[in-house]
Write a structure and sequence with these properties.
Elements: H1 3-11, H2 19-60, H3 66-89, H4 92-109, H5 112-129, H6 132-148, H7 159-162
Length: 163
């Protein structure tokens, strides 16, 4: 659950929520149907989105080994799933926690160049297969992933960069 909402309930253990606390809760609850829609659309189109990005990656980096490219695609798929879950929960800490080992793997395999290219291609594929509102919910988590994985050879993700 969203850490701020979790904290609201902890703080209000012996009292009713204050109006400003209810506003935070209400805002999250009101956004939940759209978040669910974005999550389900991403889940249902994941293969198409990733395949498009992977095909373009192979075309851009023909000299890279299949094994190296496959490892990067598998990692990107996992990052995308973590981003989707974090977006659904609206929980950046959840995402950051799961990205830490991935950042170490990128460093260990020295795949930052490949992963940066794949992340750019994945972002483009997302903008082609998801509605702008769906990408809007996912964008903050993608930006966190881009930053935490040190895939900043590209400009930071923004809505303008995706559309």
């Amino acid at each position: 659950m969203h850490p701020q909402i979790d904290a609201l309930f902890d703080e209000a253990e012996n009292r009713y929520l204050k109006p400003e606390e209810l506003a935070v809760l209400s805002q999250y609850v009101e956004s939940l149907p759209a978040r669910l829609d974005a999550y389900c659309s991403l889940r249902d189109r994941e293969i198409t989105i990733m395949q498009q990005a992977a095909d373009r990656l192979v075309a851009e980096l023909p000299g890279e080994s299949t094994e190296t490219l496959e490892r990067s695609v598998k990692n990107a798929l996992l990052v995308l799933r973590h981003c989707a879950t974090a977006m659904l929960m609206n929980d950046e800490a959840f995402l950051k926690d799961r990205l830490q080992p991935m950042a170490q793997m990128i460093q260990a395999y020295d795949s930052q160049r490949i992963d940066s290219a794949l992340f750019r291609l994945l972002s483009q594929s997302l903008s082609h297969h998801l509605a702008p509102q769906q990408v809007k919910f996912l964008l903050p988590m993608l930006a966190i992933a881009q930053s935490d994985l040190h895939l900043s050879g590209e400009a930071p993700l923004t809505a303008a960069a995706l559309f």
